[in-house]
Amino acid sequence: MKLKYLIACLLAGTLTFISCIKDEAPNAEADILKCTLPDGIMTSTEIDYTRPFDESLNAYPLTIEVQAGTDLTALSPQFELTPGATIEPESGSTHDFTNAVRYTVTSEDKQWHRTYSVSIRHPESQDIPTVYHFETVTQSGNYHIFYEQAADHTTLTWDSGNQGFALTGGGNVPEDYPTFLNTNGMVGNCLQLITRETGSLGQQVNKPIASGNLFIGRFELINALGDALAATKFGTAFYHKPTMLTGYYKYQAGPKFYENGTYTDRKDNFSIYAIFFEKTDQVQYMDGYLKTNNFQHDNMVALALMTDAHETNEWTRFEIPFDYARYGKEVDETKLRNGQYCIGIVFASSEDGDLFLGAPDSTLLIDEVELKYE
Questions:
Q1: DSSP 3-state assignment of 337?
Q2: How far from 219 is each of 49, 231, 328, 343, CA to CA, in Å?
Q3: pTM of the model
Q4: pLDDT, tens only, 9-41
């Protein structure tokens, strides 16, 4: 609930922001702001507290990764809440986290509550699926959230910029958004990405288009208006050395490319790439600035970048090898086992959509993707 006030403030400008904070009823929020465990247990302080409601869980998901060997049967997480809120079970109480534990946060005025499903996992249990059929979605508001579940029940939830597009008011159904499920895949359903115009709001903030995109990581809506490149957080722990990204696509560029406030004759194109990087205390993820910096970063280890993207009406196979020579680094097997490397995969219907350049109606379909590894 806190997020909705912040969004309203950002849209209205600095003066309205001050007024919004002043007028907001502080006792009407029911959010977990921070979770802590004893020193040395958590492998990362980067916890996503803003993941949307998961209908399959009937709760807001919260996932915490702890060191290998940590006893999950008796953990006592401490929660920082919005002012005046209470939580049940009590913060600091001990529970068995072999399975997720449900917590309910109630606002100070008792009028609002929010249920969280808190999962605490070892790094090895976080191994993500590596074959992506794009068959399944949940719905948050009016837009789709893609997820993939492997045979061993491990789940990967993708993210996109759909949350940001929702601010424009241009999406009444999932098919109005830049990223959604298409039922006409190569096999069953598939991913569809379309570059959309963002209307009068987008024009006001110099963000006239929204590229369809899907990526492994998370999108921080609170940063989207101020620093869109920083709002995309790419990467999740991966315990193997990736070798190739394969799959199938169709693509048609939109008729008119929007650039510098006007339509031009420039031809749009799509983007597919995957990154493999080392996670450190200082670098927990990569953001949108990586691409604008030509994928140069001290923590990068390998890059799989599609270089022969072109229009096609037929399902066309792509095979993109990971280039390790580009960075001249060897993979440390100990770090690999300990979850100190991350993978990120990114699809976009406009290759420069991260800079809000692209052709409305550029359409990319993706299906039957596989991340191959050693």
A1: helix
A2: 11, 6, 30, 16
A3: 0.77
A4: 444 443 333 333 334 444 579 999 999 998 778
